Amino acid sequence: MPIPFPEQPEPPRRPVEFDAPDAGMPDHALGRSSVAPLIDPHWAELSRLVGRAETNCADMSRLQAERAELCAEALDLVAMRVAQRQAARPNREIGDTIPLREVMAELAAALRVGERTVSTWLGDGSALVTTYPTTLDALREGRIDERHASAIIDGGRALDPEHREEYERLVLEVAERDTAPATRHFARVVAARLQPETVDESHRRALAERRVRMFDLDDGLSRLLLDGATAVIHGIFDRLTSMGIAQGDLDEPRADEDAEADESDESVEADKSDEPDERDEPDERTLDQRRADIMCDLLLTGCPALDGDAGLSAIRATVQVTIPLLTLASLDDEPALLDGEAPIDAETARALAATAPCWQRIMIHPVTHEPLRLDTYRPSKRLRRLIGARDQRCRWPGCRRTARRSDIDHTIPFEDGGPTCAGNLEVLCRRHHTLKHASPWQVVQRGGGSIEFISPTGRRYRTDSPPVLAGAAGRPAWARYFDAPMDPADHPAF
User: Fold this and answer.
1) Are 376 and 361 in contact (CB under 8 A)?
2) CA distance 58 to 39
């Protein structure tokens, strides 16, 4: 259903000149003519507002970098205090608990924040100054903000020192052009690629702590939290979503199947019951409400309520796992990716592949790691699956909606001659798909999975397709493949 937009007053016929965001740079450096740009007054005001917001964000990042340096100095004071106490009592083993608590208590009282907040600031500040100085420089220059820096620090905690420089280089490139949540996801993937053994160890440790928790909320509600293996939880959520969608239209009430009955058929009308059928009533629940209700039904009774003819009990979970070829062949333990989101250990990936009813083989560029071609036994919807494997999420800057819950959009509209091919398609969620067609936003394919979004104010935002293999350590996987022993009797699977 199209989204109605409020009527806007007609702009004046004469465009207004304004200063572009890159004003002051020579025209030849920007690849444009010397003619000043003309723009509607509305977009001129928006451009000035965005420019002020960018300046404000850069100033905040600079102050956050200063705070990180102050926190590192605070830890130096702690170390100095520990040394003084040890010198005063040389025969006693004195730790740094009291000096650290002294500093944290003083800062918390002065800044009117909790000591846990101060503890986080101290840890991140020390990590930026001592371990990630390039990230600190980017923060000081306003190229990233505090959340990006925190994502880099958290993602690299388990890495050995020899991997951290390469890790910082790879993740910082993404942080400077993408959102903090996307940076956090990419950091986890890169860390898993650089040091695969940390994935197995952390997964075993986390799985040993799995549990179910319950919390009472307000207004007669309680919350049930389940911690489990990533593959299992993703499968549960996917099945709940499929069941929720199968229970009826989420946008409009379900049509009454008897509404179009032939009124002249009196015998049929006479046999109908006068009592209303609950299944004919529109289901006005949201998808979140349906997931919650179905999960309660499954846990309490073993099957969803109001199954009827929907066949909800036959729905099974669908989970996409991207597995490197050497890992699948047990020649390497490089982690796999679950739904393009979370790294999973090699053993779990091989177990999922062994029980999968259908494999989809993705050919990946050996250098850029861009998905190039997808082979499957089921040729229908091949192009849609390829675009989903390439983009993984809505390509709009900052959006994180998964490809499976989004639309496939023609960059150049089909009615304008745009071809239906990988170079003219991208994943957009319904919200941004509508915005693209109902506003002056422009989308340009730059090749290699790179898409540029041009806003009505003339600003350009580039998004790159997430690489399937991010940050490979050591010799590339495609090169190590030729070192594996080959059995002449072992025929290819495809």
Assistant:
1) yes
2) 26
Gap between the Cα atoms of 216 and 234, Å rounded: 25
Structural contact between residues 195 and 164, judged by C-beta atoms closer than 8 angstroms: no
Q: What is the DSSP secondary-structure string of 273-292?
A: -SSPPGGGS-----HHHHHH
Backbone angles phi, psi at 17, to 5 degrees: -80, 150
CA distance 17 to 36: 7
| Parallel, antiparallel or unpaired: strands 321-322 and 336-338 | antiparallel
CA distance 6 to 338: 42
- Strands 425-428 and 407-410, how do they pair? antiparallel
CA separation for the pair 388, 410 (Å, rounded): 14
The C-alpha angle with vertex 80 and arms to 76 and 85, in degrees rounded to 5, equals: 145
| Both structure tokens of 32 | 């444009």
- The pairing of strands 450-454 and 371-376 is unpaired
Count of Cβ atoms closer than 10 Å to residue 130 Cβ: 11
Tell me the C-alpha distance between 141 and 399, whole Å: 25
- State the pairing for strand pair 360-364/342-344: unpaired
252 touches 334 (CB < 8 A): no
The amino acid occupying position 152 is I
Distance CA 162, CA 474 (A): 12
Q: If phi over 0 gives left and psi between -120 and 50 gives alpha, with beta otherwise, what is residue 417? A: left
Residue 19: its H or E element? none
Cα–Cα separations (whole angstroms), residue 331 to 326, 327, 481, 484? 5, 6, 8, 7
Burial of residue 344 (number of CB atoms within 10 Å: 0-12, 13-18, 19+): buried
pLDDT per residue as tens, the chain (494 positions)? 444 444 444 444 444 343 444 444 445 444 444 445 556 788 889 999 999 999 999 999 999 999 999 999 999 998 888 888 878 777 766 666 788 888 999 999 999 999 999 999 999 999 999 999 999 999 999 999 999 999 999 999 889 999 999 999 999 999 998 999 999 989 988 998 888 877 777 778 888 888 888 888 877 788 888 888 888 888 888 888 888 888 777 654 333 333 333 333 333 333 444 454 555 567 778 888 888 888 888 877 777 766 544 456 655 656 666 777 677 777 777 777 766 666 777 777 777 776 665 555 565 666 666 776 554 433 346 788 888 888 888 999 988 888 888 888 888 887 676 777 888 889 999 999 999 988 889 999 998 889 999 998 888 999 988 875 554 445 555 555 556 666 666 655 54
